């Protein structure tokens, strides 16, 4: 039996939640597993549909962490547990169990100044477990730079489920919304500084001189939403930028599949960094190439000059030049075909094979 310990799990939405759900579900096809997850409203209906045991732990954050660790320690004493897999180093920190431990790392949660109190805590956990599973080569390099033992780290990218079939009604709705608007750029992400929507919008100001019917579709919500909308208004781009949030998966997938380029030239903002970027992979499943930023793990998800482009997200000219390069001669069509083939390596079945190697 393996235990999965997570602070992020459905029915709560988000990239980490999807990752931990996918890992738990796929592992349950091969191993006996039990998940220890945080309490979330509405979890009972969700948990009843799972084919493995999920134990929820509630209460205020600090007490919840202690209570969860006590429950896990008690469980390992009474059951034969081969290993404990955690989504965060803090999930392992209070455990007293001597079982083999594995920790996923994603980027920003380990990105603390070398020598700081938090850095020392990170190293105390990660350098004393069986394996550290980095979501990208970038995250591995960051961990080594911060003091994690390189021999402890293995890179396993996040997995994705097969792309859902496109809903005809949603596709029809998208075409009626977009009409003659082309070319079509899209970003699906939270609105925060790291995602770099503002520089894409600034590039759009010049692009519309070449492509008068260009459109930029932004799907998401977040702290920067009002700032981004203000920038769109200031640059007189309200006809070129469309915002969507709280939409169905069918409509979101139809918008992605009806676009030409997925763009998210992420940057490092303070300690926040894009460790991988599952959104690039999800776009590739529909044959949509991506433009990603060089700061972070996008290079694991995008094969530069084959399935998309990696640019300097801090450089407006580089973002603009990358868009021009993709749009000229319809290069995005070739990259999109390559992306759809490339993305098969991220299917959960293949990703789990990498986990099996370290468990063995």
Can you lay out the helices and strands and say which pair or pack?
Blueprint: E1 2-6, H1 15-27, E2 33-38, H2 43-49, E3 53-57, H3 61-78, E4 83-86, H4 89-92, E5 100-105, H5 117-126, E6 131-134, H6 137-145, E7 153-155, H7 168-178, E8 184-188, H8 197-210, E9 215-219, H9 225-234, E10 241-244, H10 249-257, E11 261-264, H11 278-284, E12 290-293, H12 298-301, E13 308-311, H13 316-327, H14 331-342, H15 348-359
Parallel strand pairs: 1-2, 1-4, 2-3, 4-5, 5-6, 6-7, 8-9, 8-11, 9-10, 11-12, 12-13
Helix pairs in contact: 7-10, 8-13
Provide a brief overview of the structure.
By secondary structure, this protein is of the alpha/beta class.
